[in-house]
Amino acid sequence: MIAAAAARNDSGTTVPHWPAPYADRPVDATVTVPGSKSLTNRYLVLAALADGPSRLRAPLHSRDSVLMIEALRQLGATITEVPGDGAFGPDLEVVPLQHRGGEGQEDAAGTAVHIDCGLAGTVMRFVPPLAALRGGPSTFDGDPHARKRPMGTIIEALKALGVGVSAEDGGTPASLPFVVEGTGEVRGGHLVIDASASSQFVSALLLVGARFTEGLHLEHVGKPVPSLDHINMTVAVLRGAGVQVDDSVPNHWVVSPGPIRAFDQQIEQDLSNAGPFLAAALASGGTVRIPGWPEQTQQVGDLWRSILARMGAEVSLLDGVLTVRGGTEIKGADFADTSELAPTVAALCALATGPSRLSGIAHLRGHETDRLAALVTEINRLGGDAEETSDGLVIRPAKLHAGVVHSYADHRMATAGAILGLAVEGVQVEDIATTAKTMPDFPRLWTGMLAQQGTDRAMQGSENGAGGSAGAAED
Ligand SMILES: O=C(O)C1=C[C@@H](OP(=O)(O)O)[C@@H](O)[C@H](O)C1
Ligand SMILES: C=C(OP(=O)(O)O)C(=O)O
After folding, report:
1. Residue 322 above 50 pLDDT?
2. Quick check: 264 pLDDT over 70?
3. Ligand 1: which of 234, 339, 364, 437 to mutate, judged by most atoms within 8 Å of the beta carbon?
4. What 8-state DSSP symbol labels residue 98?
5. What mean pLDDT is reported for the chain?
6. β-pair type (427-429, 18-19)
């Protein structure tokens, strides 16, 4: 029995729940998804600091990327949409802060600006160090839950670098909102932080480190840093822009001072967001193909190949097409350090025939919502058997029933609800629109995936290049 048919969103409007489509036959579809959030927002930051104009090809257009674009514009970068070949929106041209020149350059420096971080970890962590390099105060705030996300390490790091950071009442803040008093220059040097709550603290400082007068020797001390793949992505992106980074000693990153080279960069599709679509193959016992899977990538989503194989799928990567074929059952398994993939993995574990344990994800309590609590509540609400551990989840097999999955303004909780709904008739997802954080097209892509009949038709859609074949199939 479904308790409620609608809920109010942040602006008080009543929004009907999304009836998650049930797969009454195996899915057989070809899907492409929009550009990577993590790559788009890293390249935007680097482009804003580069030694000339840059271009991002096929970037993500979503709430998180728009928030990043607006933040960089506030700090003085010029960002323009230009036509490109991407199926999900225009390319972006970025003229960096120091190259803007002429009208507006002087205005941008010195004046007070306001940065809305929304709920985007990449904006609330990556932009404050950039604001430190600009002369003048920048205030930072975000969604109600953004004020609960860990920020202390960035605030303390900036203070240790000699940058003023204060709460609106003048005291020392522990989280959003706060004001960064940029001086136009940061000396840099050796900096010790505790990045155990988020890898984004490390990435944020590395991204700007080359623009500090003395560069940056960043050292982490404390419990292990989570989501190391995302730090490796930051290092790779920096090296690609000509920045020297030495990461040969664990927990130390040395960024040499110097220019960041302007670039023209194709953005890979978001492999983490490919996850729910690949999971659909297992949840329905069908087949999902993703063309354009990168041969080499730093994205954590490349782990889908091993994760889904361990859950019983047949997985192959041939000529850039990743094919995942589900069988008659989903196997439970133990997974460590699944980072932002965890909500999708947990949804599959709730459908598995054996028990699963997810570990090394304690820091998910500081994500868009407390994801460990949210996953336990929502899986159990549907009759599942999930339990929190100190650093993750245990999920045991149970027969699930219809119900409303709450999303907590968390895009990955909403997509987890969609996966459960494929296998369990009568699931509704509260606030499916929250997927706009990283994938505004999610409902259309999902129903497009389900509307596809088979390979030939699907591949035809893909060749037409119309927003990925999932979106193109049945509109
Ligand atoms: O740098 C990034 O782009 C990200 C790093 C990770 O953050 P945490 O280290 O806080 O998990 C990841 O979960 C987030 O979705 C994106
Ligand atoms: C944790 C996530 O996002 P953010 O970049 O806001 O930290 C996520 O996308 O799963």
Report:
1. yes
2. yes
3. 339
4. G
5. 92
6. antiparallel
269 lines ligand 2 (CB under 6 A): no
Which of 36, 367, 410, 411 to probe ligand 2 with, by most ligand atoms within 8 A of CB?
367
Instruction: Identify residue 164 by its one-letter amino acid code.
Output: G
Q: Where a domain ends, among 259, 285, 318? A: 259
340 lines ligand 2 (CB under 6 A): yes
Question: What is the model's pLDDT at position 8?
Answer: 60
Predicted-complex ipTM score: 0.99
We report the CATH number of the domain holding residue 237 as 3.65.10.10
Residue 219 among the catalytic residues: no
DSSP for residue 169: T
Domain identity same for 220 and 326: no
**Beta carbons within 10 angstroms of residue 359's beta carbon:** 16
Ligand 2 in contact with 122 (CB < 6 A)? yes
Between CA 368 and CA 447, with CA 340 as vertex, the angle to 5 degrees is: 85
CA–CA distance, 125 with 142 (Å, rounded to integer): 12
**Does 98 share its domain with 237?**
yes
Q: What is the pTM of this model?
A: 0.93
HSE of 441, CA atoms in CB hemisphere, 13 A: 25
Pair (254, 345) in one structural domain: no
CA of 179 to the centre of ligand 1 (A): 23
Does 1 fall in a domain? no
